[in-house]
Design a protein that fits this description.
Largest sheet: 2 strands, antiparallel
Shape: globular
Number of strands: 2
Strand order of the largest sheet: 1-2
Strand content: 5-15%
Helix content: 40-55%
Length: about 80
């Protein structure tokens, strides 16, 4: 029996897909935690885990008091 994908990974994969599709571009602010909670019917802890994993990998940048933004990864190339 296949294992279900944890919800935080599903949220992370959804954000990655939006970035790849150009719906979220470098410098764009991602939806708020509250909005992501509503979209995925989950808790703030689950959303934070997804977002934090993307911050750790350099895909997103958190700016205190401003929000979380898509990183400009072209600077790394």
């Amino acid at each position: 029996m296949p294992y279900a994908v944890p919800l935080w990974r599903s949220i992370r994969d959804d954000l990655r897909a939006q970035i790849r599709a150009g719906l979220l571009k470098p410098g764009d602010r991602i939806p708020t935690t509250r909005k992501l909670m509503e979209q995925h019917s989950t808790t703030s802890a689950t959303v934070r885990r997804a977002v934090d994993s993307m911050i750790e990998s350099g895909e997103l940048i958190g700016r205190q008091g401003l929000g979380v933004f898509v990183a400009d990864r072209s600077e790394e190339a």
